[in-house]
Amino acid sequence: MDGAGLAAAVSRITDGISRLISEHVALARIEFRDDARAFAFATARLAVFALLILVGYGFLCAAVAMALWSWIGSIGWALAVVALVNVLIGGPGVYLAIRRLTGREVLDETLVEVSRSAEVLAAASRPDGRERRLEA
Hints:
mainly alpha, 3 helices
């Protein structure tokens, strides 16, 4: 292979790698935008409904505390019982919600595509350093 042929081959390889990288970046942008939009909508829905539940839950706790007050005879102990029940039920619920959020993978399709491209590039080169032709 002469110098001009080698330069043309290097140019084609660099153009191909450049195009591959730009396509991966474009895929990552699209996927990140879609993931961010999904998280934003889920957060907005959660905020609206959580506010409604919080107000209703406050009234329910007040009603239970008043009922316990008449049964126990002390408002302090009635409030303590209601608080303890809330902590025992709410703690594991918060833990599970946080675990579920951390389990969501972001940019998972992009990572798969980058790994696939890396495997193809690794398979295309031989251990002796010579280039192997890729079939389309």
